[in-house]
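Worked example

This section walks through a single chain of length 134. The input is the sequence exactly as stored; nothing has been trimmed or padded.
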Amino acid sequence: MVEQFVDIAAGKFPEIMFRVGMLEAIPVQDSSLGAILAWYSIIHTPPRDFGAVLSEFARCIRPGGSLLLGFFEGERVERFDHAVVAAYYWPVPEMHYKLSAAGFDVVRTDRRSDPEHRPHAAVIARRRDDHSSS
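Given that input, the structure is written out below as tokens.
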């Protein structure tokens, strides 16, 4: 959470409202967002807290809304040293399971593996309506 990043984004896109918040407590009303972009935003979240973050995303996104989630892909959930604080690899099947448990349907998954770089994955998921949530 770096306020300077929000200032930069607001300067580039003045028509969009940006706020600083915590992943576990996003300061918006229930079902008030059409989408959330979590592009490597969750990589430092410990596995024990991960379900709570996805549940919070589901609370905020209206049924039919989207989540775009970028993360480091690995063979198992595993901690690794990254910049200032530890990050985690997530297997794509495990990520799909977590998303489903939080009330999302996976729409698309993309993977990228470049030589000498960590493997990456991106998942687009759609929020189920309240009647079909797990």
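What to look for: The first strand starts at residue 33 and ends at 39.
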